[in-house]
Write the structure tokens for this entry.
Amino acid sequence: MSNYLDNLIKLDCSGIYVLSFNMAKPMVYHQPRPWSDKLVDKTMIKVGKCKSIKKRMGEYRSTYGYREKEPPKTEEYWKQKGFDNVYLRRCLGCESTEPHHHVNYLHISPTEFVPEESYYDYHDEIEKKISDKFSEYKIWSNMEYYRREIKEDLIKEVTNLAKK
């Protein structure tokens, strides 16, 4: 990862981002819902917004990578899958037992200039414009996951909209 992106993922301000993934096996889109049938894989990119870039990028690393411990509310699910407890101590995307993640930070536009009270209006508008423009490439109609083949065009659009 470039030094530029390394520095951006440490910012504690709002932002808009584009991510890709490099796991060997599909992984569930949200760690607290391991039973979901929505699986993320290396053919997808994600466009999103966040109030804290640092916090959100950390959440992606823990969802799509090595998992020491799952959320307590998932304990019954993991017990039914043959685990004694929620301490998985492995990656569900590649089975590695070493800490790592499968997230590629393709683009981050910090939006520290957006006032707290305008956060949703500003960021939701960008997500809507992206969704409208690239709707035929969406994986799920209600989520901002797209086919990876449009990443360059999508990054250009996110960059342009964030600058406006």
In short: The radius of gyration is 16 Å. The chain has a mean pLDDT of 93.
